[in-house]
Design goal:
By secondary structure, the chain is of the alpha+beta class. The chain has a single domain (about 1-350), classed as Creatine Kinase, Chain A, domain 2 (2-Layer Sandwich). About 50% of the residues lie in helices and about 15% in strands. It has helices spanning about 20-30, 55-75, 100-110, 110-115, 130-140, 145-150, 170-175, 190-200, 235-255, 265-280, 295-315, 315-330, 335-350, and strands spanning about 1-10, 35-40, 45-50, 80-85, 120-125, 155-160, 160, 215, 220-230, 285, 290-295. Strands 1, 2, 3, 4, 5, 8 and 9 form a 7-stranded antiparallel β-sheet that branches. Strand 6 and strand 7 form a beta hairpin. It is globular and about 55 Å long. The chain starts with a strand and ends in a 5-residue tail after the last helix. The relative contact order is 0.15.
Length: about 350
């Protein structure tokens, strides 16, 4: 497994995002553990840190911590701070067109949709044997992705306004064509044919650009889960990775038993994603399989039951249970941002998700 984390670069005084990625990325990419990389993202006010291939939580935590320290130190040296929030907490310095050709082309294609899009996610990669298997696994993941989102919500503010959502990032992403849970596909050929159709229709820049919350990676032999907001802490990124790997392992076990995933009703899926983005863990969610509302905390319990055997087989059950307990008691990233804002305003919320240099 591996994790990609997207972060914002901000001015420490104003809190506005700053386009310093061109300077911060090469400065951060020095002396990192083998496999860890730092790279550019859609906006020049963003950086992405990717772990190497990890087989256990200890390795993953070490990679995530090293990457975060490197990015924070490089940003400090260039007069900036690194903010681990799914959306800008205080303000934007202006999302100028990217200096990288592919990202500049994306800006041109989507116009105003990307003008203020500085969204940051946490992407989890889990290795699988082949692309057909990857597609079959993605079919199984759909019902559980909204619960992973509810656990991860960490973008309640947008330019100093409380949006009322736990994840404003997901609301912003919903403006792109094809966002949400992936449609059901019978094999990689069907998946690729649909992506090619969307490229031909002109709504995707290329075959590597899809907006679905889980997909076969276009670059790696993995299933990629992309539903979570960037985590404010390493522990919460580890939680997403361990749950993601357990979901993939559970899906593989079901496939070995001949259990194919049923298609997910598209409107129920949209309702589940919206509820998770709106309320996080503090309100109702939608059980996709039953097509009805229930408390988000009950959906988390159902998720843990679903992957319990897989977590036990990798020795991760106790760690995941402990991380979930801490999240329930301390609240999500969105909850913590709001508590900080209640005592110190938007500056306090930004400080709550600023990485230490």
């Amino acid at each position: 497994m591996g994790v990609e984390e997207e972060f914002l670069l901000a001015d420490p005084a104003s809190g506005a995002t700053v386009p310093l990625a061109e300077k911060v990325v090469p400065a951060a990419a020095v002396g990192l553990p083998a496999g860890v990389t730092i790279q550019r993202e859609l906006r020049d006010s963003q950086v992405e840190a990717a772990t190497g291939i990890c087989t256990d939580a200890a390795d993953l935590r070490a990679h995530l911590s090293a990457a975060r320290r490197a990015v924070a130190a490089a940003a400090r040296d260039h007069g900036a701070v690194v903010v681990a929030s799914g959306s800008p907490v205080r303000g934007s310095g202006g999302a100028v067109p990217s200096s990288l050709p592919r990202f500049a082309a994306i800006d041109e294609r989507y116009g105003e949709v990307t003008r203020d899009y500085e969204a940051c996610g946490c992407h989890v990669h889990v290795g699988v044997t082949d692309r057909d298997t990857a597609v079959a696994v993605v079919n199984h993941l759909g019902p559980w992705l909204p619960t992973l989102l509810a656990l991860s919500v960490n973008s309640p503010f947008f330019r100093e306004r409380d949006t009322g959502y736990g994840s404003w990032r997901i609301v912003q992403q919903s403006r792109f064509p094809g966002s949400g849970l992936a449609p059901y596909h019978r094999g990689h050929a069907a998946f690729r044919a649909e992506v090619d159709r969307l490229v031909e229709c002109g709504v995707l820049a290329d075959a590597a650009q899809t907006f679905w919350f889980a997909r076969p990676s276009p670059r790696l032999p993995t299933v990629e889960l992309r539903v979570a907001d960037v985590a404010s802490t390493v522990d919460e990124a580890v939680l997403q990775a361990l749950l993601g790997r357990a979901l993939v392992r559970t899906a593989l076990a079901d496939l070995e038993r001949g259990r194919e995933a049923p298609p997910v009703p598209s409107q129920v899926a949209a309702a589940a994603v919206w509820s998770a983005a709106r309320y996080g863990l503090s309100g109702p969610g939608v059980h996709v399989g039953l097509s009805r509302s229930m408390p988000a905390t009950a959906l988390v319990a159902a998720l843990l039951d679903h992957v319990r055997e897989a977590l036990a087989s990798t020795g991760d059950l106790a760690e995941v249970s402990g991380l979930l307990d801490r999240l329930r008691s301390g609240g999500t990233g969105a909850d913590r941002q709001r508590r900080a804002a209640a005592s110190a305003g938007p500056a306090g919320a930004a400080a709550a998700v600023t990485l230490p240099a």
